[in-house]
Write a structure and sequence with these properties.
Number of domains: 4
Number of strands: 16
Radius of gyration: 32 Å
Oligomer: single chain
Distance between the termini: 52 Å
Number of helices: 12
CATH topology of the largest domain: N Utilization Substance Protein A, Chain:P, domain 4
Strand order of the largest sheet: 5-6-7-9-8
């Protein structure tokens, strides 16, 4: 155990770990080994001597009254107050005393046990570090190489230290990948599976993936000169994005679309030619809703009990609804409220709701991938 600090420094540098974390791990491995060698019923502690660069192992004993019944059961775990005061005159009942245990007495079996414990806990430390790294990347775009596609059409992707999976349900309808393809996706969730370790799930159907792609393609979004307020998708078909410019000389929609649509087309291509509507956000709900329902021209918007009552000419109703209800449904998702269409013209008004116009239930599959 000589020069343990040098060993800790070496492990930390090699594995890219924090020195304090490695120190705690070494101490934990040593106390686990002591429990296996000396007994599980005892309490142990460790301390690193910075001067000698060595680690010391201590057994903890509890100070008890002279007549405590536990002394008769285990005199190695408990010490009477009179004997404890010979070691430390200021000690009181309930305090702990520590005795150093010579590491030289551990033997070869204990050394092998310590090696296994240290290896196990360093691996757990590495896994926790990787887990925290990717947990903080949820919602961010990543890319990697496809290594396998299983019988359920789940696609496995390797990038950096982990293998991620793109479940079939998180894949855009009509997409197919082959081993060796480079796949982009957004990290949807990360957790530790008891059997397989770190599980990183990707998605290509999440609105967050659209937002991540826009940030990669539009420098103004990446530089936070344009903010994405919200987005909604029916994957592979159509999406809407609400944008706000934080600079007086930047047009949020124009910059995002790009010259001759070059920027938005690049994003659309990655999303299996998904049509993307860019909308200028407004904090005034009525204005925001009327913009979001484009290409329909709206006469009036009224908010009642969290619902938007939209009045429009009869010839604009089909545009507001869109094919299979896509336009009104996306608008409802984008603004966060139900929308009711009230048609004007003719002898009476007719109504349509954002909850009633979706004719194809499969069109909404994987909305929130």
């Amino acid at each position: 155990m000589e020069k343990i600090i040098d060993i800790i420094q070496s492990i930390a540098n090699e594995k890219g770990l924090d020195i304090k974390d490695v120190q705690e791990t070494v101490g934990l491995a040593l106390t686990k080994t002591a429990k296996k060698v000396y007994g599980q019923e005892y309490e142990y502690g460790t301390e690193i001597d910075k001067d000698t660069k060595t680690i010391k192992l201590y057994q903890k004993v509890l100070v008890v009254d002279e007549n405590d019944e536990r002394l008769a059961i285990d005199d190695e775990k408990y010490i009477p107050i009179t004997q404890a005061k010979e070691v430390d005159p200021e000690v009181e009942i309930g305090d702990e005393l520590t005795y150093e245990l010579p590491l030289d007495n551990l033997g070869r079996t204990a050394a092998a046990t310590l090696h296994k414990e240290l290896e196990f806990h360093i691996q757990r430390l590495l896994e926790n570090q990787i887990f925290e790294k990717y947990k903080n990347m949820v919602g961010k775009s990543v890319f990697g190489t496809v290594t396998r596609i299983d019988n359920d059409e789940n696609t496995y992707v390797e990038f950096e230290e982990v293998r991620a999976v793109l479940p079939r349900k998180n894949r855009i309808k009509g997409e197919k990948f082959k081993v060796g393809n480079v796949l982009k996706g957004v990290i949807r969730k990360v957790f530790i599976d008891k059997t397989n370790g770190i599980y990183v799930e990707l998605s290509r159907t999440s609105p967050k993936f659209l937002e991540a792609l826009l940030a990669l393609e539009v420098p103004e979004i990446k530089d936070e000169l344009i903010t994405i307020n919200n987005s909604a998708r029916i994957p592979g078909e159509r999406a809407k994005v609400a944008l706000t410019s934080l600079h007086p000389n930047i047009d949020a929609v124009g910059a995002t679309v790009g010259t001759k649509g070059i920027r938005i087309n690049a994003v659309s291509k990655e999303l299996h030619n998904e049509n993307i509507d860019c909308i200028e956000y407004s904090s005034i709900p009525e204005i925001f809703i009327s913009r979001a329902l484009a290409p329909a021209i709206i006469s009036n918007v009224k908010i009642e009990n969290g619902k938007a009552i939209v009045t429009l000419p009869s010839d604009q109703k089909s545009k507001a609804i869109g094919k299979s209800g896509i336009n009104i449904r996306l608008t409802s998702m984008l603004v966060g409220m139900d929308i009711e269409l009230v048609e004007i013209g003719g002898s009476s008004a007719t109504q349509s709701s954002s909850n009633e116009v979706v004719k194809d239930p499969n069109a909404l599959q994987n909305l929130f991938g």
